[in-house]
Design brief:
0% strand, rod-shaped
Length: 69
């Protein structure tokens, strides 16, 4: 269940980070896009942490292979 939550939250944060980064880059007002940049950076950090939680949760969970198989 933890993996599913981390995956969904991480993918959502990644999509949000891409969207806010796009808004930051295409902003016409030079002073108006700073908050979009910070939001994009924060969402990218959330996506990174969720990715770490997802992938590090699978460490040492390999199936045992018996010698007779």
């Amino acid at each position: 269940m933890k993996d599913l939550i981390a995956a969904v939250l991480g993918l959502g944060a990644a999509v949000g980070a891409i969207w806010f980064f796009y808004k930051f880059v295409t902003s016409v007002d030079p002073a108006g896009g700073h908050s979009d940049g910070w939001i994009a950076l924060g969402l990218a950090a959330v996506a990174f942490v969720c990715g770490l939680l997802y992938f590090l949760g699978h460490v040492n969970k390999e199936e045992e292979i018996h010698i007779t198989q």
